Amino acid sequence: MAKEIKTIGILTSGGDAPGMNAAIRAVVRTALVNGLNVKGIRRGFSGLLEEDIIDMDGRSVSDIIQRGGTVLYTARSKEFMTSEGQDKGAEICRKHGIDGVVVIGGDGSFQGAGKLAARGINTIGLPGTIDLDIACTDYTIGFDTAVNTAMEAIDKVRDTSTSHERCSIIEVMGRNAGYIALWCGIANGAEDILITERYDHNEQHIIDNIIHRKQAGKKHHIIVNAEGIGDSYGMAKRIEAATGIETRATIIGHIQRGGSPTCMDRVYASTMGSIAVDLLCQGATNRVVGYRNGQYVNYDIEEALAMTKDVDQYMYDMAQKLSQ
Ligand code: ADP
Ligand code: F6P
Hints:
By secondary structure, this protein is α/β, with parallel strands linked by helices. It has 2 domains: 7-142 and 261-306, Rossmann fold, CATH 3.40.50.450; 144-257, Rossmann fold (3-Layer(aba) Sandwich), CATH 3.40.50. The protein has 11 helices and 11 strands. The strands form 2 sheets. The protein has a 7-stranded mixed β-sheet with strand order 3-2-1-4-5-10-11, sandwiched between helices. A hairpin with a 2-residue loop joins strand 10 (287-292) and strand 11. Helix 5 (143-163) packs across helix 6. It is elongated, with a radius of gyration of 22 Å. The N and C termini lie far apart (61 Å). Adenosine-5'-diphosphate binds at residues 13-15, 45, 76-77, 80-81, 105-109, 111-112, 115, 129.
């Protein structure tokens, strides 16, 4: 028989992402509507091990849907990577009467959630990362806001780049994944998009490209460079030396992680938060919620972690054609 859940714990883990607050609000309020108690676990698994646990009610999540970051704070915990740490975490959940936990984070956080599930605490993971690098889902909480922030920043760089007829290399976040770079590359009309999934490190090809586009009348050359490739400043120096065209590098950085979430992030995060509580009420555990092919789905954590995905080849090829 499915375990009856009376008290839900909620935590955010790994890098923060805009929309996490909307998900927290949805978890808290859906749980309360279902007659459950809710405890906020602050600072991710690290806070769990430190028993940094607070009672939450409807007012605890007032006025947060529009705010970036996470009101529960977030952290990375080395101790929770050990089986002793995981035993201690499950024991602390029991001590506080927490029978179900919603974990909002990326793949690393889902591994942590799986360890709690294996120790008898029902867990549901929600995909929270600006990087979009979670294989079981087409959508992650925060990506839409981050990619819009990066797009607006690149538009600004483009203005000055055109005025000075320069080449600009703009580095966006994404850890080893190129989704932010690819989406911005298309949205900003970049001449080149460098992503780990496709870049062959042939810098001469980029240099030739810059020269040809200049001859064809282009007034700027925008290169969107993914964090996983990096070296934007070094690349700018080498390109300027080889082409004779003034070249500047801009690293957008953590600006991409903050700010008020877009409508899409608020709505999807709210829906996923609500689904997580529904799943816990149905007795589900060790599941990750995703959004795939236009539908909300959920998968066993191990199954989700074993999945792989790649950037869309059509989008990548199209970006190259549209930048002629
Ligand atoms: P993300 O969740 O964004 O992928 P991390 O990979 O930094 O971010 O993971 C966040 C936290 O999840 C880690 O600091 C750790 O507490 C926990 N975690 C990651 N991997 C594991 C694991 N294999 N076992 C248990 N906990 C893990
Ligand atoms: O995973 C989100 C992310 O912003 C990545 O894009 C980036 O590589 C990393 O986190 C940066 O982490 P930190 O905030 O620890 O510098």
